[in-house]
Amino acid sequence: MTINNMLLRKASEADATGLYKLTNMFTPGPATDFEEFEIHFCALLKDPNWFIGVAVEQSILSGYIAVQDYGRALRGSFSVGRIHDLFVVPTTRRSGTGRSLVESAFEWATERPTPMILDWQATPESVSFYESLGFKADFVGDFPEFPGFTLDLR
User: Fold this and answer.
1) SS3 15
2) Which of 28, 63, 119, 151 keeps 20 to 30 A from 105, CA to CA?
């Protein structure tokens, strides 16, 4: 899907180098070396319980989202999912990239075989972004400085 000269798509193995750079911008200092990252990234791409979406502008990755479906609990009739990462390059923020990536994750969650409750936590700087999407921050929990958000698709 193309929006305002931004291509939004599911990540591919060819994105490993660009995505590695973005993850290191998101969390300064590499958590792993590139080879380890690439192996793990390619494994997640093959896992149907993961969705990694990317935004591309002028052939360069400008953002990504990583979402996991944990599946149903023993007694549950629904699945629980989590947005692990949402990152947009600072120079392209406030252009609709983040909103589009979140919407792609919600679309993926909606298409899952079992209805899902999707949860995530936000940095203090990103709370207003999620509130602009219509979500209410939940400051009660283990880490109130990183409030939680929920999308209930049941």
Assistant:
1) helix
2) 28
Dist CA 37 CA 39 (whole Å): 6
Start-end of H helices in 27-134: 34-46, 97-110, 127-132
Q: What is the largest CA-CA distance in the chain?
A: 47
C-alpha count within 13 angstroms, C-beta hemisphere, residue 79: 18
Q: Which backbone phi and psi does 134 adopt, to 5 degrees?
A: 100, 10
Three-state SS at 125: helix
Distance in angstroms (rounded) separating the CA atoms of residues 4 and 27: 27
Helix (H) or strand (E) holding 14: none
Block means of pLDDT (10 residues each) for the chain, length 154 residues? 80 97 84 92 98 95 97 91 96 92 96 95 93 93 87 93
Are β-strands 148-152 and 116-121 bridged in parallel, bridged antiparallel, or unpaired?
antiparallel
The SS3 assignment for 72 reads strand
Q: Taking the model in full, what pTM does it have? A: 0.92
Q: What is the number of alpha carbons within 13 Å of residue 14 lying toward its C-beta?
A: 6
Q: How far is CA 45 from CA 12, 13, 59, in A?
A: 7, 8, 20
